[in-house]
Amino acid sequence: MDKILEGLVMSSHPLNLKKMIVKKVVESAENSITEEQCKAMFALTTRLILEGEDHFQKQVGHQVLEAYARYHRSEFENFFNKNFVLSLLQEGYRSVDHADVAVLDYIQSGLKLIMSCPSVLDLFSILQVEVLRIVCERPKPVLCAKLSELLTNFVQCVPKGKLSVAFCQQLVRTIGHLQCISTQEKELREYVSQVTKVSNLLQNIWKAEPCTLLPSLQEVFAIISSTDASFEPSVALASLVQHIPLQMITVLIRSLTTDPNVKDASMTKALCRYGHPVEGRKLETDAFTAFFWKETGNLMCSMAKRI
Predict the structure, then answer these.
(1) How far is CA 159 from CA 38, 96, 164, 165, in A?
(2) Residues 91, 93, 94, CA angle at the centre, nearest 5°?
(3) Does position 40 have pLDDT exceeding 60, yes or no?
(4) What are phi and psi of 260, to 5 degrees?
(5) Can you say whether the dihedral through the CA atoms of 203, 207, 209, 210 is positive or negative?
(6) Among residues 172, 183, 278, 292, which one has the least CA distance to residue 220?
(7) Are 69 and 76 in contact (CB under 8 A)?
(8) What is the mean pLDDT of residues 268-291?
């Protein structure tokens, strides 16, 4: 059956005829077939999904994969195993790079199909580690947004315990690197949408694991107070402001203004970066509060005006 399907989608037959035959292939999924036949069908549909030349081929891949995985659950569980998922995330698939958003889309589809299978727990475990690795690589906005989508839909894949703190800190770092060099309205809107998905994910983690909030805010300060002249933080950091409880901001400010390890140059840089020069540690808590909320908010407003 896989050979028939492959020949069909690659043929020059009329689209209506192709769709009619694909429907028959989907309906045949309930028939009994061998594990090898299942494996061949899963391999073909995976290739169509990830390497399909057009929307039709990708759509056929999804339709047939879902049908066969539904009727042959154990065979799909064997196919969509942790080694396969790990190879997708670290090496990609044939011509598809591991950083391609199609990889995360495919993994999401696979997780939905085996949610009731015991092996999904193994996948959750490796994904908790892999998503941390991915954010440490500073993914671009589109991949970062897709990763946030996966973790929002499958909270079981969000790093837990000590890994959750590290993940949030690295995610903040990544947000600080998210840039949009385009001035076109469409691209700017996409960028804002992508950044919003990432910041919403961080908010959800903060709510689920409050211990990650303060380290995340400390990371924000470390970024905006950096004296590295070669790096300018992304305005995307402003998207976090709306999710930060006011009382936690107060805790952070008190910590920063009394911490001897926070150098005058760093504190000055944090305030001067957006046009608020100060002299050394001559800084009142209220002034810093106003800066933090007003300036990061202004950054997002300035972006909104551009689109």
Answers:
(1) 33, 26, 5, 8
(2) 110
(3) yes
(4) -65, -15
(5) positive
(6) 172
(7) yes
(8) 42
